[in-house]
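[audit] Reproducing an earlier prediction to check determinism. Same input, same settings, fresh worker. If the tokens differ from the archived copy the diff job will pick it up downstream; this log only records the rerun itself.
[audit] input (156 residues):
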Amino acid sequence: MPRHLAIETAYARNIADPLVLTLDGTDYRLDPAINVGHLAALFTRFQDGLTSLGDDDLPMDQRMATMEAKRVEGVNALTQCVVVDEREAFAALGLERIDVVQLANIITWLLSEVSGQATPTQPPSSSNGSLADGPASTAGALPEASTPSPSAPTEP
């Protein structure tokens, strides 16, 4: 009997089950060729510099300018993840509407999906590790009749 190893690549998984980002009711398909390394490279620049936003030594207007620049960098990086024929429309809407918090949520979701970390959980198993596939131990049992508990006599 032949022995073999079958591997499903992220590309094949993304072709079979495409990633779609819906932004204000419009769906944008994500490029099935994106991989974790590509995403990490794209979003590293977005994340660099965000830690300085809490630096009280920097003037508020400088922190706000940094945040806006990082938002634009992040949306531009995200735009590169969208299929080519939808990039222009996504870029226009994304630059107008996506804020830094939403961008961070999208990045987290996308990294999770592309890395395969967002796979569905397995069905619960019994305590010995086998799958619980039979009827529950009480299935078909008749309900037990309840008996009133004796009460202490009351005195008038």
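[audit] rerun output stored. Observation attached for the diff report: The beta strands are 20-23, 26-29.
[audit] end
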